[in-house]
Amino acid sequence: MAGLRNCLVCGATGYSKVISVLNAPKLHVISADTRLDSGLFGTINLVQCDQCGHIFNGHQSDGEIESSHDLFLTNTPISESMISRHEQTVDFLTSKADTKLRVLDVGAGSGALAAAFARRGHRVTVVEPSSMIDERTLSDFGVNVVKDFWPAVSLEGQKFDLILCVQVLEHIADPCTFLSSLSTSLDDDGAIYLEVPSGDWVVKHASLTDIHYPHLNYFLIEVINSIFQKLLLVPNAIRNLLNGRDLGFVLRKTKSKLSNTDSKFKTDHLSVSLATNIRNAEARIFDLIAGKKFAIYGASAGSQAFFGFFPQIKPEFLFDDTPSYGGAFGYSPGARFEIVKPTAQNLSRVQSVVIAAYIHDKAIAEKIRAMGFAGDIYSLRPASDLSGTIQSLFAQ
Fold first, then answer.
1. What does the alpha-carbon distance between residue 392 and residue 246 come to, in Å, rounded to a whole number?
2. Which of 120, 144, 196, 259 is spaced 20 to 30 Å from 377 by Cα?
């Protein structure tokens, strides 16, 4: 395909097309001062490598928007479940440690996970390029903050017992080199904890909500295992998170050459399944935009994907609980939408709510019902994910 980059895993040039989005929002949140122009949108050409089976955005990047991206951190915990997940991760990774660990968190975001380790007495360093990271608060916990991209020159030569790379590798254009550089900074007896969204989840459920511009890679388990083998990393443990939506790997170095099990797993049905979900959603979207007022709950990657696939939607506003999003906006190719708090007064202004943050859809639905909302509630959870209890917008 002309104009597409080589496979991000094996470098091959042969692809099979999966789906395209021509005006995908690059960001899920923008400031009130950000001008809505073509620079806020990019192209997704989702393809699967014919050689190794990797699924990725093959479109050549036209650059990020550093000034807007730097205004907001994306993983600030805003609920008890999010805080609990951090604590569970600390427990999982330190249960067998008999000493305090030297911990490196690469792409730390808000630093919430790093702080959870520091509160347990571990020596923690974070590498995070955003100027919005709260260096003062993290320093109070004893966290060393390095505002830089990885690899950070100031940490060259240092070794760590545990390296955290959580929800980062899917954004990286050269994931093999990036993961190799983490291994270089790992003590021989240490571990890398790598957490990524599951490409198998996207394939199994044809999940439109999980296909958005910031994600370059959609790692199938066969593909990511082949990367580990190439880099002489062995997964000692695997965590199945959020009903399979995310996967966590505890990786350790090995000196033994591993057997070659290069993946050639094909997902020929994915394009058809995604197109079916689009058609199913369009029927309900027609009702939403036919004179009814509705809101989207979650100024998140989910709403970002939704605006890319369905640019015709125009909610009254977006609900979100993240404190730093006050006065900010979500946006689509045709308009931008204010982010507001989910109050009873704001809920009274709409007839329907679409929950984009679908991993929290049950709790969100209970919350807004308790505020007196009696209208329709839909979730952007895939219809085939039977763990959900809220009606999916993608159901037939």
1. 20
2. 196
Top mean-pLDDT range of 83-87, 141-145, 256-260, 268-272: 141-145
Angle between helices 175-184 and 221-230 (to 10 degrees): 50
- Judgement on whether residues 210 and 99 belong to the same structural domain of the protein: yes
Answer yes or no: pTM beyond 0.90. Answer: yes
In contact, 274 and 19? CB cutoff 8 Å: yes
Reading across the β-sheet that carries 144-146, which strands appear in turn? 144-146, 123-127, 102-106, 160-166, 186-197, 246-253, 233-241
Note whether 198 and 288 are same-domain residues. Answer: no
Residue ranges making up the domain that contains 367: 281-379
Residue with tokens 């044809």: 206
Compute the C-alpha angle 273/282/301, nearest 5°: 75
pLDDT at 4 > cutoff 50: yes
Q: How far apart are CA 337 and CA 356, in angstroms?
A: 14
pLDDT digits 0-9 by tens, 108-126: 988 999 999 999 999 999 9
| CA dihedral sign of residues 47, 53, 56, 58 | negative
Tell me how far apart the alpha carbons of residues 77 and 61 are, in angstroms, rounded to a whole number. Answer: 30
Interstrand relation of 336-340 and 217-218 (parallel, antiparallel or unpaired) = unpaired
Instruction: Return d(Cα 220, Cα 198) in angstroms, integer.
Output: 7
Q: Is the Cα torsion angle 8, 133, 163, 151 positive or negative in sign?
A: positive
Over residues 71-93, the pLDDT tens digits come to 566 555 545 666 788 899 999 99
Question: Tokens in use for 280?
Answer: 């199913």
Which CATH number does the domain housing residue 360 bear?
Answer: 3.40.50.720
